[in-house]
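dude i think i finally got it to work??
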Amino acid sequence: MDTYRHLCASALAAIVVLRSILAAVFPLFTDKMFQSLGDQWALTVFAILSLVCAPFPFLFYVSQYSPLFVESRVEPPCAGLRDANSGCITFRQRVREEGSHRLKG
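look at this
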């Protein structure tokens, strides 16, 4: 959010709209689902959905430093990184210089 300030409002608005839509729709089908599947199976459906979504934050973190995604990334101007000689270091230059040391541990 700090780097892409001009895109932050759109992302937050999308999250709020999606959350509101899900909050409005879930009560419409959960009662019927619990009645037809029973408590254990209905909660198992939600548990499986949670397990499927659990690795997403890790995958986003790993893909942030992947060379495949670094080359196609839209960069903000200067990204807050200053160089003494040229004045501005791009994200791609920083990743090339540092390498993927964060993935190595």
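The chain is about 70% helix and 0% strand.
im so relieved honestly
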